[in-house]
Design goal:
- This protein has 342 residues and is α/β, with parallel strands linked by helices.
- The chain folds into three domains: 1-45, no CATH class; 46-213, Rossmann fold (3-Layer(aba) Sandwich), CATH 3.40.50; 238-338, no CATH class.
- 22% of the residues lie in helices and 28% in strands.
- The chain has nine helices and 14 strands.
- It has helices at 32-40, 54-62, 77-81, 86-89, 110-123, 142-154, 170-178, 223-227, 283-290, and strands at 67-73, 94-99, 131-136, 159-163, 196-199, 204-207, 238-242, 245-250, 254-259, 263-268, 275-279, 296-311, 315-330, 335-338.
- The strands form two sheets. Strands 7, 8, 9, 10, 11, 12, 13 and 14 form an eight-stranded antiparallel sheet that branches.
- Strand 2 (94-99), helix 5 (110-123) and strand 3 form a beta-alpha-beta unit.
- The mean pLDDT is 93.
Amino acid sequence: MSEKCIGCGIIKQNQNESELGYCRDLNQDYCQRCFRIMHYNDPLIDTRELVSFKEMHNYLDETDNLLIALVVDIMSVSSFLKSDYKQLIKRHPFVILINKIDLLPENANMEKVEANLLELIKEEGWLTADLKGIYLCHHRDKTFIDLFKDFLRENEYQKLIFMGSFNAGKTSLIRLLSDNKQLLNSYYPCTTLALQSVKDDEFEYLDSPGLIDEGNIMMRLDLNELKNLDFKKRIKAKIYQLYSAQSYFIADFLRLDAVSKRGSLVFYLPNNLDIKRVKQENAHRNEAILLKEQEYDIYEFKDCHNEDYEIAGLGFIAVRNIAQMMLKLPKGTRIIKRGNLL
């Protein structure tokens, strides 16, 4: 019997039902929180402010012959690359795994995507001697298994730790590579709470808690709102042509105003997010109805010719020939302007 929950890695306990790791019976494999997520889609406890990274830092300091696999969500790639996560790598070699490419529209030009990603990685200073490879992948990608394991064998890497922002898909890739389905993955941030070791015949894979990104919109939404976001299905781009001043309300937490005589907006966001378009002159009246009450930040842009605006944790908007644009987002949410990905 393991003292840790095999789903999230937390040490099990049977003393306090309201704290992490609670099990009625310590012989159970999963803590109550993991059991509820698996069977009822109910996490019970919001762990976004409860994760500790001390164990991970100590492991990185004390372990030799280790490869770091940095898992990056394709929908938030700029947000990750612009972060200060380089400091975590320290002295270890690393690879970058651009994950969830199966979310991109079916007609995406992958050669163009690869070239644009490489340019972003180069611009943000990640092309160092310690970077040993860049892979595009997703959690059902059987080709990736053979390709990545061949790389590990050729370079004699036997132990690797998967790191990245929460919800980047670290656990899903370990499940794919190891064929071990016991680790729990979900779309709730910070499902994994401690280091988890999984071994196959050749390699040891370590799962780690997702790194906290305060600029990620998922830090601003409650658990019920997160439950309603669909990050599993291929994105269907929503295209709008503009010939005047218009406003767009996305779900109940985002507003976009745009002015253009002949421009366009393409939304690459979860498919189940409802988008309502109104005349800008009616936007204020609609906002009182459509946006929930909370604190917001306002971002203003001018002369948006042909670029993307990435909303950390949500996706991105491709903008073409917009004279003026305003985005209203939950306070603290990061937005990044970049060249087109697609």
